[in-house]
């Protein structure tokens, strides 16, 4: 049983993967579906959940995935493939293990930085004061 299927056992990080994007070379192929299958296998026994999402509105960088920390930051990434599974799991575990629920840049796999990173979203409880 996967961690996201266990009642009362909330994952530290949920990895949402877009299932709507299509492969340009094969209009019938949905690369996110293959990515989900590979991620579910790779995250077994880890405090991570993998869930499909119809669209992340990141179509220009498909396939896309989002990391959502249960009490911290969220991140959206693009240009991901099944070859990136190990790096995706590494990044999600870095986020899960960070006390602040923040994905540090130092040590982050290359596919989760630069052109692959689309956005980071603060948690609802986040607060910063404007500089004086």
UniProtKB/TrEMBL annotation:
| InterPro entries, A to Z | DUF1636, Thioredoxin-like_sf
Top-level lineage group: Bacteria
Supply the Pfam families for this chain: DUF1636
Its recorded name reads Predicted metal-binding protein
UniProt source species? Xaviernesmea oryzae
């Amino acid at each position: 049983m996967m961690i996201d299927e266990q009642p009362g056992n909330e994952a530290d990080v949920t990895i949402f993967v877009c299932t709507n994007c299509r492969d340009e070379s094969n209009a019938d192929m949905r690369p996110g579906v293959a990515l989900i299958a590979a991620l579910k296998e790779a995250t077994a026994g880890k405090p991570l959940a993998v869930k499909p999402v119809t669209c992340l509105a990141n179509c220009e960088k498909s396939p896309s995935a989002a990391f959502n920390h249960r009490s911290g930051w969220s991140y959206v990434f693009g240009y991901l493939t099944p070859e990136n599974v190990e790096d995706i799991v590494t990044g999600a575990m870095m986020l899960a293990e960070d006390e602040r629920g923040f994905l540090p840049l130092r040590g982050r796999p290359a596919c989760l930085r630069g052109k692959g990173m689309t956005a980071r979203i603060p948690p609802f409880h986040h607060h910063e004061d404007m500089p004086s």
